[in-house]
Amino acid sequence: MGIIKPKYAIALHGGAGTILRNKITPAEEANYMHTLADCLKVGQLLLAAGSDALSAVVATTIALENTPLFNAGKGSVFTHTGGHEMDAAIMCGQSLKAGAVAGVSRIKNPIELAQAVMQNSQHVFLSGGGAEAFAATQNIPVETDDYFFDAYRFKQWQQVKNTGITQLDHADEKKFGTVGCVAFDVNGNLAAATSTGGMTNKQYGRIGDTPIIGAGTYANNNTCAVSCTGHGEYFIRAVVAYDISCLMEYRGLTLQQACDKVVKDKLLQMGGEGGVIAIDKNGQIEMTFNSEGMYRACANDTQSTVAIYS
Asked: Is 178 part of the annotated catalytic residue set?
């Protein structure tokens, strides 16, 4: 029997690595599961109604950015100076067009700005004040510092702000707080989107893999769509998202084989931890990680899954 091709497919993540089971209450775990399911439903309903993959990944990522549970948008961690620097990227598998922003501070939904860069500018990647100036020309919503304040994130920052240490979202539990979405629509088109608040107490305008096309985000109708989450420096060096696509295109690997080789072999040998969500040109989904778990959910026209631990 051949592969059964679904009408549509979607997958999302809220970060790889997990809060350890002994440090999360049943109520907290249920809240994560419920929120992941709600965000998944946003994109799933769009795809079921015939919307394109690009619209689905944007809407789903916005939903993830709007919850403080994940380190993106409203839930972004604090930088060394007590502010927020957010990154995001999007790519269309049909046209291979892409848009990305890095180091933006006041943008409510950075993925919207990344989409505007892709669709309404001559560029792919804008950063900092320039990206925010462009946002003003596109009427992209902005928010005050109060909107991005979260007591838990603030406590995380307070613990390390005077140490010079840059830490992950949940350093002691090794949770990498990025959000992302990949989708396959009824016309066979793919898209990927990723958004993050970066690392707690980060300095010097540090940028991870999320907004780098080919490292943290990639989509190509000939192969797959990928969104990554993990220790960004390793994902940049391994060019994770594009490497998965390349293994499929040039070596003929399946999506599962390519994801396993990059995430469970190549990354591990380098010392990198994290995971990916991916969908291939046939609508097949993979959610692969080498950490204890990954906040994740996926669905097609016949079934859905929501999970945290491996």
From this structure: yes
